[in-house]
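Q: Could you fold this chain for me?
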Amino acid sequence: MNKTRTSRLLTLTALAVLGVVFSSNTIWAQTPPADSYKVNYFQFANTSGAPDQTVQVTNPDATGGSIWALVYVTNASQELVECCACQITPNGLLTLSVNSNLTSNSVEPGVITSGTVHIISSSSSNLSKPVAVAGGVRAWGTHIQWPAGSTGPTITETDFLDATLSSAEETRLGNACGEAVLSNGSSYGVCTCGFGG
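A: Sure. Below is the predicted structure, expressed as structure tokens.
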């Protein structure tokens, strides 16, 4: 009788331990900080007759100091074309030109006309290994809309949207920047930080 009771107790204990292990995602993967990753798009960049687009980034001082906006620009084929680290002081405003700061020095040949801007809020300027922080930057981007049949473009502005910064995405962006840009031995692929910040 005691052996059966002991066996049941050990079995229940083992099941409880397994349940805790499998239900806790912090044991298996670290959850990225909330509000640390922003994304937006651009189109009609570097296009004749279309005005430049801008990206505005501010630090609302939720972290209690300066933070880095790690900017990764991908083209329409999801290839990283430029990346840079821009420091923003508390309540500072950084203004970036899509044509001049984010797409004029592409590591890929040809003119970049559309793509995505990814911003990771980081406590470090290391583009290869971001250290994402919660409560990061806020960003807005202007967009060129050129409906078929219209005589010219119109400009709209939208917020950058929050996205979940998975460890896979953080690694992918960091590796792409490190391999394609920072280690290529040239200055191609390094975007510039515009003005302000």
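A (continued): The radius of gyration is 22 Å.
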